[in-house]
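Sample entry (166 residues):
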Amino acid sequence: VRALARLGYLGFSPIRRSDPTLAGHLTDTQSAIDFVKRLPAADPRKVAVVGFSRGALLACMASTRRRDLAGVVVMAPARGRGALDRALDSAAKVSAATLVLVARNDLRQTDHVRLSRAVDAALRGAGKDSELKIYPPFGRDGHRLFFRVRRIWWGDVERFLSSRFE
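Predicted structure, serialized as tokens:
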């Protein structure tokens, strides 16, 4: 959120509650988007969702249910026991441009590279605007690449957002 603010964007990062199901998290995500759109400092026509791992899964799911997002950034999406596949079955419903990011060695918990490729392929197959970036291996666990803002990928996020909002 601080990195977004430094670029002049309004950032909002809800804390994921530990008790709801995936459906509950999706409801929370939808509610957070609606909340942000009503903030006086927000332009409701310029809202993007950025998510990492389970947050990326939720961003994908939300993007198939909303027509009011200007962009979606998906970083190393989780599978969610088939929820990602089900969301990708609805790729034709996505209206927002999507940026998909992953490290080449993000394979420890699950094959996030394959999942990231699947997101990009489903969106492109549905004629949607999608861009996939696969970064060089990061340490011993590529999933950790997105644990904090890093120059290697943040420039791509900045470019993507500026192309949607300026």
